[in-house]
Task: structure prediction
Amino acid sequence: MEINRLLKIGVDKIKDRPYSNPVLEAVLVLGELLNVDKTYIYTHGEEKVPQPLVDRFLELMDKRKEGYPIQYLINKREFMGLDFYVEEGVLIPRQDTEILVEYVLDYIDEKYGDSPINILDLGIGSGAISLSLAYYRKNATVYGVDIHDTPLKVANINKERFRLDNVKLYKGDLFEGIEGLGLEGKFHIIASNPPYIARKDIDSLQREVKDYEPIEALYGGEDGLDYYRRIIPDSKKYLREEGLLVLEIGFDQGKDVVHMMEEEGFKEVKVIKDLQGLDRVVSGIKVKELD
Ligand code: GLN
Result:
Protein backbone atom coordinates (compact mmCIF):
# COMPACT_ATOMS: atom_id res chain seq x y z
CA MET A 1 0.00 0.00 0.00
CA GLU A 2 1.20 3.58 -0.70
CA ILE A 3 2.24 5.95 2.08
CA ASN A 4 -0.66 8.36 1.42
CA ARG A 5 -3.38 5.74 1.59
CA LEU A 6 -1.89 4.12 4.64
CA LEU A 7 -1.61 7.46 6.44
CA LYS A 8 -5.24 8.24 5.73
CA ILE A 9 -6.33 4.95 7.28
CA GLY A 10 -4.11 5.60 10.28
CA VAL A 11 -5.43 9.13 10.76
CA ASP A 12 -9.03 7.90 10.55
CA LYS A 13 -8.34 5.43 13.32
CA ILE A 14 -7.12 8.01 15.82
CA LYS A 15 -8.93 11.16 14.74
CA ASP A 16 -11.48 11.04 17.55
CA ARG A 17 -8.98 10.76 20.39
CA PRO A 18 -8.85 13.76 22.68
CA TYR A 19 -5.31 15.08 23.27
CA SER A 20 -4.09 13.88 19.91
CA ASN A 21 -2.75 15.42 16.75
CA PRO A 22 -3.80 12.69 14.31
CA VAL A 23 -1.91 13.66 11.17
CA LEU A 24 1.34 14.44 12.93
CA GLU A 25 1.13 11.33 15.08
CA ALA A 26 0.46 9.03 12.12
CA VAL A 27 3.36 10.61 10.24
CA LEU A 28 5.70 10.19 13.22
CA VAL A 29 4.81 6.54 13.73
CA LEU A 30 5.16 5.69 10.06
CA GLY A 31 8.42 7.64 9.85
CA GLU A 32 9.74 5.65 12.78
CA LEU A 33 8.81 2.35 11.13
CA LEU A 34 10.32 3.31 7.79
CA ASN A 35 13.28 4.95 9.48
CA VAL A 36 12.79 8.26 7.64
CA ASP A 37 11.92 11.78 8.77
CA LYS A 38 8.64 13.70 8.50
CA THR A 39 9.64 15.50 5.31
CA TYR A 40 10.35 12.22 3.57
CA ILE A 41 6.88 10.96 4.45
CA TYR A 42 5.26 14.17 3.18
CA THR A 43 7.18 14.11 -0.09
CA HIS A 44 6.96 10.40 -0.94
CA GLY A 45 3.21 9.83 -0.76
CA GLU A 46 3.20 7.46 -3.73
CA GLU A 47 5.88 5.18 -2.39
CA LYS A 48 4.83 1.64 -1.50
CA VAL A 49 5.10 0.42 2.09
CA PRO A 50 5.98 -3.28 2.48
CA GLN A 51 3.08 -5.34 3.84
CA PRO A 52 4.67 -6.32 7.18
CA LEU A 53 5.21 -2.64 7.95
CA VAL A 54 1.65 -1.83 6.88
CA ASP A 55 0.41 -4.39 9.40
CA ARG A 56 2.70 -3.11 12.12
CA PHE A 57 1.64 0.49 11.48
CA LEU A 58 -2.05 -0.39 11.72
CA GLU A 59 -1.40 -2.31 14.94
CA LEU A 60 0.33 0.72 16.45
CA MET A 61 -2.47 3.05 15.37
CA ASP A 62 -4.97 0.72 17.05
CA LYS A 63 -2.94 0.96 20.22
CA ARG A 64 -2.88 4.75 19.97
CA LYS A 65 -6.66 4.69 19.47
CA GLU A 66 -6.94 3.08 22.91
CA GLY A 67 -5.04 5.98 24.44
CA TYR A 68 -1.54 4.52 24.43
CA PRO A 69 0.79 7.55 24.51
CA ILE A 70 2.42 8.48 21.22
CA GLN A 71 5.77 8.99 23.01
CA TYR A 72 5.85 5.33 24.05
CA LEU A 73 4.87 4.24 20.53
CA ILE A 74 7.80 6.03 18.96
CA ASN A 75 10.11 5.71 22.02
CA LYS A 76 10.88 9.38 21.88
CA ARG A 77 10.23 12.64 23.69
CA GLU A 78 11.95 15.95 23.14
CA PHE A 79 12.92 17.81 26.34
CA MET A 80 15.18 20.87 26.57
CA GLY A 81 16.10 20.38 22.92
CA LEU A 82 17.29 16.82 23.54
CA ASP A 83 15.72 13.68 22.09
CA PHE A 84 15.07 11.40 25.05
CA TYR A 85 14.49 7.70 24.65
CA VAL A 86 11.35 6.74 26.63
CA GLU A 87 9.45 3.52 27.18
CA GLU A 88 6.61 2.28 29.36
CA GLY A 89 7.70 2.40 32.99
CA VAL A 90 9.10 5.93 32.97
CA LEU A 91 7.13 9.13 33.19
CA ILE A 92 7.10 10.95 29.85
CA PRO A 93 9.00 14.23 30.38
CA ARG A 94 6.63 17.20 30.60
CA GLN A 95 7.24 20.58 29.08
CA ASP A 96 6.30 22.06 32.47
CA THR A 97 9.46 20.56 33.92
CA GLU A 98 11.57 22.72 31.61
CA ILE A 99 10.64 25.59 33.97
CA LEU A 100 12.61 23.91 36.75
CA VAL A 101 15.57 23.10 34.50
CA GLU A 102 15.75 26.62 33.04
CA TYR A 103 15.59 28.07 36.51
CA VAL A 104 18.47 25.88 37.71
CA LEU A 105 20.59 26.66 34.62
CA ASP A 106 20.23 30.41 35.25
CA TYR A 107 20.88 29.93 38.95
CA ILE A 108 24.11 28.05 38.25
CA ASP A 109 25.35 30.78 35.93
CA GLU A 110 24.58 33.56 38.38
CA LYS A 111 25.84 31.92 41.52
CA TYR A 112 28.61 29.56 40.40
CA GLY A 113 29.60 30.44 36.83
CA ASP A 114 32.03 27.76 35.63
CA SER A 115 33.13 26.52 39.06
CA PRO A 116 32.66 22.83 39.73
CA ILE A 117 29.39 22.01 41.51
CA ASN A 118 27.46 18.94 42.64
CA ILE A 119 23.79 18.44 41.85
CA LEU A 120 21.44 15.73 43.09
CA ASP A 121 18.21 14.74 41.30
CA LEU A 122 15.76 12.56 43.23
CA GLY A 123 13.50 10.39 41.08
CA ILE A 124 15.19 10.61 37.70
CA GLY A 125 12.63 8.88 35.46
CA SER A 126 14.03 9.06 31.93
CA GLY A 127 16.69 11.50 33.14
CA ALA A 128 15.00 14.66 31.88
CA ILE A 129 16.19 16.88 34.73
CA SER A 130 19.52 15.27 35.60
CA LEU A 131 20.76 14.69 32.07
CA SER A 132 19.72 18.05 30.65
CA LEU A 133 21.47 19.82 33.53
CA ALA A 134 24.58 17.70 32.94
CA TYR A 135 24.38 18.31 29.21
CA TYR A 136 24.11 22.08 29.42
CA ARG A 137 26.47 22.66 32.37
CA LYS A 138 29.66 20.64 32.10
CA ASN A 139 30.97 22.11 35.35
CA ALA A 140 28.23 20.18 37.17
CA THR A 141 28.59 16.63 38.42
CA VAL A 142 25.05 15.31 38.57
CA TYR A 143 24.00 12.48 40.86
CA GLY A 144 20.65 10.88 40.06
CA VAL A 145 18.65 8.42 42.15
CA ASP A 146 15.62 6.29 41.35
CA ILE A 147 14.00 3.44 43.21
CA HIS A 148 12.88 1.52 40.11
CA ASP A 149 14.88 -0.42 37.52
CA THR A 150 13.24 0.83 34.33
CA PRO A 151 14.08 4.51 34.97
CA LEU A 152 17.68 3.57 35.72
CA LYS A 153 17.88 1.55 32.52
CA VAL A 154 16.26 4.30 30.44
CA ALA A 155 18.31 7.11 31.99
CA ASN A 156 21.48 5.13 31.31
CA ILE A 157 20.45 4.74 27.67
CA ASN A 158 19.97 8.50 27.48
CA LYS A 159 23.23 9.17 29.28
CA GLU A 160 25.02 7.17 26.57
CA ARG A 161 23.00 8.83 23.86
CA PHE A 162 24.06 12.32 24.99
CA ARG A 163 27.60 11.11 25.76
CA LEU A 164 27.63 12.41 29.31
CA ASP A 165 30.45 11.54 31.64
CA ASN A 166 29.44 13.96 34.40
CA VAL A 167 26.43 11.91 35.56
CA LYS A 168 26.27 9.17 38.19
CA LEU A 169 23.11 7.15 38.64
CA TYR A 170 22.17 5.13 41.72
CA LYS A 171 19.31 2.91 42.73
CA GLY A 172 17.51 3.64 45.97
CA ASP A 173 14.67 5.24 47.83
CA LEU A 174 15.40 8.99 47.68
CA PHE A 175 18.50 9.80 49.78
CA GLU A 176 19.11 6.12 50.57
CA GLY A 177 20.42 5.80 47.02
CA ILE A 178 23.53 7.83 47.88
CA GLU A 179 23.98 6.76 51.49
CA GLY A 180 27.51 5.77 52.43
CA LEU A 181 29.14 7.71 49.60
CA GLY A 182 30.26 10.52 51.87
CA LEU A 183 28.12 13.09 50.08
CA GLU A 184 26.57 14.68 53.17
CA GLY A 185 26.85 18.46 52.96
CA LYS A 186 28.27 18.26 49.44
CA PHE A 187 25.43 19.38 47.17
CA HIS A 188 25.15 22.87 45.77
CA ILE A 189 21.74 22.00 44.36
CA ILE A 190 19.14 19.32 45.06
CA ALA A 191 16.31 19.08 42.53
CA SER A 192 13.30 16.82 42.25
CA ASN A 193 10.08 16.34 40.35
CA PRO A 194 8.56 13.85 42.77
CA PRO A 195 5.18 12.15 42.41
CA TYR A 196 2.70 14.78 43.56
CA ILE A 197 -0.81 13.89 42.39
CA ALA A 198 -3.31 13.67 45.26
CA ARG A 199 -5.67 10.71 45.54
CA LYS A 200 -8.70 12.77 44.61
CA ASP A 201 -7.06 13.91 41.35
CA ILE A 202 -5.89 10.53 40.07
CA ASP A 203 -9.24 9.67 38.51
CA SER A 204 -9.42 12.85 36.50
CA LEU A 205 -6.06 12.33 34.78
CA GLN A 206 -6.38 11.78 31.06
CA ARG A 207 -6.40 8.18 29.91
CA GLU A 208 -2.92 8.38 28.36
CA VAL A 209 -1.54 9.20 31.80
CA LYS A 210 -3.77 7.17 34.10
CA ASP A 211 -3.77 3.92 32.15
CA TYR A 212 -0.26 3.84 30.74
CA GLU A 213 2.17 5.99 32.71
CA PRO A 214 3.73 4.62 35.90
CA ILE A 215 1.40 5.41 38.77
CA GLU A 216 4.34 5.27 41.19
CA ALA A 217 5.81 8.31 39.42
CA LEU A 218 2.55 10.24 39.81
CA TYR A 219 0.82 9.38 43.05
CA GLY A 220 2.03 11.46 45.98
CA GLY A 221 -0.18 10.05 48.73
CA GLU A 222 -3.56 11.18 50.04
CA ASP A 223 -2.88 14.92 49.61
CA GLY A 224 -0.04 14.55 47.08
CA LEU A 225 2.52 15.96 49.51
CA ASP A 226 4.12 12.78 50.88
CA TYR A 227 7.41 13.15 48.99
CA TYR A 228 7.87 16.79 50.01
CA ARG A 229 7.46 15.70 53.63
CA ARG A 230 10.42 13.37 53.19
CA ILE A 231 12.64 15.32 50.82
CA ILE A 232 12.55 18.73 52.50
CA PRO A 233 13.83 17.73 55.97
CA ASP A 234 16.32 15.14 54.66
CA SER A 235 17.77 17.48 52.05
CA LYS A 236 19.33 19.63 54.78
CA LYS A 237 21.79 16.87 55.59
CA TYR A 238 23.00 16.67 51.98
CA LEU A 239 22.98 20.36 50.99
CA ARG A 240 25.93 22.63 51.58
CA GLU A 241 25.33 25.83 53.47
CA GLU A 242 23.62 28.20 51.03
CA GLY A 243 22.68 25.18 48.87
CA LEU A 244 19.51 25.32 46.78
CA LEU A 245 16.54 22.98 47.07
CA VAL A 246 14.26 23.17 44.05
CA LEU A 247 11.08 21.13 43.66
CA GLU A 248 8.43 20.80 41.00
CA ILE A 249 4.93 21.00 42.48
CA GLY A 250 1.29 20.72 41.42
CA PHE A 251 -0.43 24.02 40.58
CA ASP A 252 -2.34 24.02 43.91
CA GLN A 253 0.54 23.01 46.19
CA GLY A 254 2.56 26.23 46.26
CA LYS A 255 1.35 27.47 49.62
CA ASP A 256 1.80 24.13 51.37
CA VAL A 257 5.27 23.45 50.03
CA VAL A 258 6.48 26.99 50.76
CA HIS A 259 5.19 26.57 54.29
CA MET A 260 6.98 23.23 54.68
CA MET A 261 10.28 24.69 53.52
CA GLU A 262 10.00 27.71 55.78
CA GLU A 263 9.16 25.47 58.73
CA GLU A 264 12.38 23.57 58.02
CA GLY A 265 14.33 26.82 58.13
CA PHE A 266 14.96 27.45 54.44
CA LYS A 267 15.32 31.09 53.40
CA GLU A 268 14.36 33.01 50.27
CA VAL A 269 11.62 30.45 49.68
CA LYS A 270 9.71 31.29 46.54
CA VAL A 271 7.29 30.00 43.96
CA ILE A 272 8.09 30.05 40.27
CA LYS A 273 5.21 30.04 37.82
CA ASP A 274 4.89 28.17 34.55
CA LEU A 275 3.99 29.65 31.17
CA GLN A 276 0.30 29.43 32.01
CA GLY A 277 0.87 31.50 35.14
CA LEU A 278 0.35 28.53 37.46
CA ASP A 279 2.56 27.69 40.43
CA ARG A 280 5.04 25.07 39.22
CA VAL A 281 8.28 25.15 41.20
CA VAL A 282 9.27 26.01 44.76
CA SER A 283 12.85 26.87 45.65
CA GLY A 284 14.68 27.81 48.81
CA ILE A 285 18.15 28.15 50.24
CA LYS A 286 19.56 26.23 53.15
CA VAL A 287 20.79 28.65 55.80
CA LYS A 288 23.84 28.27 58.01
CA GLU A 289 23.58 26.45 61.31
CA LEU A 290 20.80 24.10 60.42
CA ASP A 291 21.06 20.72 62.06
N1 GLN B 1 2.86 16.95 35.89
C1 GLN B 1 2.53 15.58 35.90
C2 GLN B 1 1.10 15.39 35.44
O1 GLN B 1 0.29 16.25 35.65
C3 GLN B 1 2.72 14.99 37.27
C4 GLN B 1 4.14 14.69 37.50
C5 GLN B 1 4.40 14.31 38.92
O2 GLN B 1 3.58 13.79 39.68
N2 GLN B 1 5.57 14.59 39.28
O3 GLN B 1 0.76 14.39 34.87
